[in-house]
Design brief:
This protein is mainly β. The protein has one helix spanning 17-28, and strands spanning 2-5, 37-42, 46-54, 62-65, 69-77, 80-86, 91-96, 101-105, 110-114, 118-122, 126-132, 139-148. The two termini are 17 Å apart.
């Protein structure tokens, strides 16, 4: 897990070819207020998903992990809490290979608050519970860049 300021994201160049493409894209493009959907950066190796949603009470939030992709989470607007645990310390309920999605059961080890300007990079070993409300549920616009690390 890497949690940093957007202005420091360029420091993470050199960790891998696909991550370099993702970081380069994010550092050179103003995200503005993108519409929800999928945006190609480098085919299935690096792409961006944009979401609009309401945050949830923690007991309703999805706990997930991925085998082949790292996620780079950035908020365009709103505030969200993300719970993170090492995947070796939680239970994998099931795996959907076509979606590269592990459903996770277990306890969160650490919480990170995301606000615009912050960046959270989650690697395959980082199980993450997303969409957790900070206080009461609120509207969020979020960018998640998917980065192939397999």
């Amino acid at each position: 897990m890497i949690y940093t300021e957007m202005e420091n994201l360029g420091h993470y160049q050199g960790l891998g070819e696909c991550l370099d493409k993702a970081v380069g894209y994010l550092c050179s493009h103003d995200l503005g207020n993108p519409r929800a959907g999928r945006y190609e950066i480098d085919g299935d190796s690096v792409y961006m998903n944009v979401f609009d949603y309401e945050t949830l009470p923690e007991d309703e939030a999805v706990f997930e992990a991925h085998r082949d992709y790292a996620d780079i989470h950035l908020l365009v607007s709103g505030e969200e809490c993300v719970g993170v645990s090492d995947r070796s310390r939680v239970t994998v309920a099931n795996f959907d290979e076509t979606q590269d999605f592990f459903a996770i059961d277990g306890a969160v080890e650490q919480y990170v608050n995301l606000v615009p300007g912050k960046v959270l990079i989650l690697l395959p070993e980082d199980a993450h519970k997303v969409k957790i409300a900070v206080g009461s549920p609120s509207t969020v616009k979020k960018v998640v860049v998917k980065v192939l690390v397999k």
